[in-house]
Design a protein that fits this description.
By secondary structure, the chain is α/β, with parallel strands linked by helices. 47% of the residues lie in helices and 15% in strands. The protein starts with a helix and ends with a helix. Bound molecules: 3-phosphoglyceric acid.
Length: 214
C-alpha cells in the first residue's frame, strides 16, 4: 500500500460523519476523535457544508487525515480540495469521478461490491476500495470470495460495522480499515457527547490492535 493508504490502515477505523452544525461541532469532534487515537474522518456530503466541516476539522487538528464521503459530483471533489480535504469516498463506482479525482491528485476510495465494480476499478490502478454497504452486501464472506480473483485490492468495509464485528473484519488481511458511524452517531454529535466519542474511539483502537496482534 502507498504511505497514505497505510496511514489510514494503521489507524484501522474511519469514522463516517454527518455534521449538521459544522461551526458548532467540527472542531470539538476533531479533537474528540484525535484524543481517542482515531485521527481520521470521512465527512459526508449528506449534510450541506461538508467542505466547511472539513476545513474546520483540519484547522482544529492539522495532523488529522480528513476526507469527504458520499461524493456524487465533481463540484464536491473541487470543494473538498479547496477545503484542504485529503481523500474522496463515493458510495458506488463512478468512473468519471474516479478519473476526475485522479486528475486532481486526490486519493479516491470508490464503493465496490461486485465483480463488475472490481473489474472497473482495475483500470484505474486503485489499491483500496470502499466495500459498501458491507454487511448488507454479504459481509466478510463476500469480501473474501471477491479477493480470490482480485487479490490486488484491499477494502474498507463500511455499513453495519460496529464494536461487535470490528475484530472479525480487521483480522482478515484483505481489510485495509473499517468505516463506520457507530462512534459518531447523530445522537452523540447532536448532544455533543465528545467524551463518549473519545471512549468509543479508544475501544475501537484497542480492538484493532488486539485483532492485529492475535
Ligand atoms: C456509510 O455511508 O459509509 C455508511 O452509511 C456507514 O454505515 P454505518 O452507519 O452502518 O456505519
Amino acid at each position: 500500500m502507498n504511505s497514505f493508504n497505510q496511514a489510514i490502515s494503521n489507524i484501522g477505523v474511519v469514522p463516517v460523519i454527518k455534521l449538521n452544525h459544522p461551526e458548532r461541532d467540527a472542531a470539538p469532534l476533531a479533537k474528540a476523535l484525535c484524543a481517542g487515537g482515531v485521527p481520521v474522518a470521512e465527512v459526508t456530503f449528506r449534510a450541506a457544508g461538508a467542505d466547511k466541516a472539513i476545513r474546520l476539522m483540519k484547522e482544529a487538528c492539522p495532523d488529522m487525515i480528513v476526507g469527504a464521503g458520499t461524493v456524487t459530483a465533481k463540484e464536491q471533489i473541487d470543494a473538498t480540495i479547496a477545503a484542504g480535504g485529503q481523500f474522496i469516498v463515493t458510495p458506488g463506482f463512478d468512473p468519471e469521478l474516479v478519473a476526475y479525482a485522479q486528475e486532481k491528485n486526490i486519493p479516491i476510495f470508490p464503493g465496490c461490491t461486485t465483480p463488475t465494480d472490481y473489474h472497473a476499478a482495475l483500470k484505474f490502478g486503485l489499491e483500496v476500495l470502499k466495500f459498501f454497504p458491507a454487511e448488507q452486501s454479504g459481509g466478510l464472506a463476500k469480501i473474501k470470495a471477491m479477493s480470490a480473483p482480485f487479490p490486488q485490492f484491499k477494502v474498507m468495509p463500511t455499513g453495519g460495522v460496529s464494536l461487535k464485528n470490528l475484530a472479525e473484519y480487521i483480522k482478515s488481511p484483505v481489510i485495509a480499515a473499517c468505516g463506520g458511524s457507530y462512534m459518531v452517531t447523530a445522537d452523540l454529535i447532536d448532544n455533543q457527547k465528545w467524551d463518549e466519542i473519545t471512549a468509543l474511539c479508544k475501544q475501537s483502537r484497542d480492538i484493532v490492535e488486539e485483532a492485529r496482534r492475535g
